[in-house]
Every structure is written in structure tokens, then in C-alpha cells.
Q: What sequence folds into this?
């Protein structure tokens, strides 16, 4: 019996995502930056989805302003964290459903700052990602090694453990984004070399494909950590880099648009 020859897998291009994480920054005047980004996107078409994740206090008003001023708002909005429960006695927390209600289409979970500041474990991050899915949001799940872990040659082991523990079963390309953010590159101006980024992103792609099959081959893998207009083009050109998660450079429209320009058509 001759073996069936399978056709090569269809390679569907992955639409990149450039997401700005404002962290605990931004007051009402930050709305002007969001409008400037949205207006620029209306005239300069880019081959990427673009998103801002403002603090929760700005989410709803930003959604209203963006929607009011444009028929086809091209700037998406995301939250920065969510509680695992839908509602209840959890003072100070925000649920994924609340973020969705306020206008978000995604939420960042497991950012290293939350893993450190709030002792979030992989298991908690996984529950938060599942909560995001329950609410109809995409989960942007962050992973990344510390400087010490990289020096010790543990980068892939750490990232592999975080991926396995932080991603829920049944994740799909449409509702799950992985962000590789080396902790030592966040806010420091340091970035891994393109070769190092390629190695980790290829490893993440393999892990996603092994666990989720075709869905895993299509999930977006973002790079984050000191992405700036000056280095965005080089970093975004690396294989398996499907966009960026941008901190400091997302706070000013000019800088953020400089990063987004890596995907100018
Ligand atoms: P910076 O771009 O400021 O290094 O922050 C990256 C980050 O943590 C995005 O989530």
C-alpha cells in the first residue's frame, strides 16, 4: 500500500498586532494621544491590528470617544489585567466581563510586573486567560525570563514552563496571543539580539503547535521589552514575531506610531 502524500500545510499569513501597554500611566489628557493614534491610522494604512491597553479608569471614556469620532474605529482597546471571577466581593478588582462591557476586546494577563507585584502564579494566569475567553476577550498572555535565568541558560526552560502553565486548554488563534517579554528588557533600553529573539519565538511556536495543532501555528507571538521606533523594524522582521507589546514608547502617539510604522504598507 502506498502512503498518502499529504499536501503541505496551508500557510495563512498571520496579521500582526501592535499593542501599547500604558501600565499605571495616563490621565484624561492621555485621551488626546489615543485620538492622535486613531486619526493617524485612518490615513496611514498599516498591515497590523493596533491596540492600546490604558488603565481601567480610561477604558470606557476612551472607547466612547474613539467610537463617537469614527465610523470604523481602527484602534482597538484592551485591559491590563482581570480577576478570574465574573463579579463579586473582590474589592479593587475588575472582571473580564467588565472590561468587555467598557469596550475592550482583549486583556493582558500574566505581565511580569503582576507576577512580581501580586505574586501571580502560572495557574492564576491560566485562570485569568480562561476568564478572558469566557468574556469573549482575547487573552494576551505574557511570558519571559529574568536576567539571572538567562545567564543561567534557563530561558527556554522558564518560557516553556510558563507557557505550559499559563495557557488554558482549548485556546484558539482568535482568542489567544502570547507576548514574549524578557523581564530584563522591560523599561531598560536593553533588547535581546534578533538571533536570541528568533530562538525563543521559534521555541514558543513549536510549543503552541504541539499543544494546539493548527490553531497554535496561527497564534500571534508578540515581542515586548524596550521596543522603540528605532528598533521596531528590525525586531518585527524576525521570524515568528507577529507584532509587539510596547510599554514606554506607547504613551506618546508619535513614538507609538513610529513603532506601528514597522508595518507600514
Ligand atoms: P517597555 O516597552 O517600556 O520596555 O515595556 C514593555 C512592557 O512591559 C510591555 O508590556
A:
Amino acid at each position: 500500500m502506498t502512503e498518502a502524500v499529504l499536501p503541505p500545510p496551508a500557510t495563512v499569513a498571520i496579521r500582526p498586532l501592535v499593542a501599547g501597554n500604558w501600565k499605571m500611566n495616563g490621565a484624561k489628557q492621555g485621551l488626546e494621544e489615543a485620538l492622535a493614534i486613531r486619526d493617524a491610522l485612518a490615513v496611514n494604512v498599516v498591515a497590523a491590528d493596533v491596540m492600546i491597553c490604558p488603565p481601567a479608569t480610561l477604558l470606557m471614556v476612551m472607547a466612547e470617544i474613539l467610537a463617537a469620532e469614527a465610523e470604523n474605529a481602527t484602534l482597538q482597546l484592551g485591559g491590563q489585567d482581570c480577576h478570574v471571577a465574573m463579579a463579586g466581593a473582590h474589592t479593587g478588582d475588575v472582571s473580564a466581563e467588565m472590561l468587555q462591557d467598557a469596550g475592550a476586546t482583549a486583556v493582558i494577563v500574566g505581565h511580569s510586573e503582576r507576577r512580581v507585584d501580586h505574586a501571580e502564579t502560572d495557574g492564576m494566569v491560566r485562570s485569568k486567560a480562561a476568564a478572558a475567553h469566557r468574556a469573549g476577550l482575547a487573552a494576551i498572555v505574557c511570558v519571559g525570563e529574568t536576567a539571572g535565568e538567562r545567564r543561567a541558560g534557563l530561558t527556554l526552560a522558564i518560557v516553556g514552563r510558563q507557557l505550559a502553565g499559563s495557557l488554558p486548554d482549548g485556546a484558539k488563534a482568535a482568542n489567544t496571543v502570547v507576548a514574549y517579554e524578557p523581564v530584563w528588557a522591560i523599561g531598560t533600553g536593553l533588547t535581546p539580539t534578533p538571533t536570541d529573539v528568533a530562538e525563543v519565538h521559534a521555541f514558543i511556536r513549536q510549543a503552541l503547535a504541539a499543544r494546539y495543532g493548527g490553531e497554535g501555528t496561527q497564534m500571534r507571538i508578540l515581542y515586548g521589552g524596550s521596543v522603540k521606533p528605532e528598533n521596531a523594524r528590525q525586531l518585527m522582521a524576525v521570524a515568528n514575531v507577529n507584532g509587539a507589546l510596547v510599554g514606554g514608547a506607547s504613551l506618546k502617539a508619535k513614538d507609538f506610531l513610529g513603532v506601528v510604522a514597522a508595518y507600514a504598507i
User: Anything to note?
Assistant: The first strand starts at residue 17 and ends at 21. Residues 17-85+93-263 form a domain with the TIM Barrel fold (CATH 3.20.20.70).
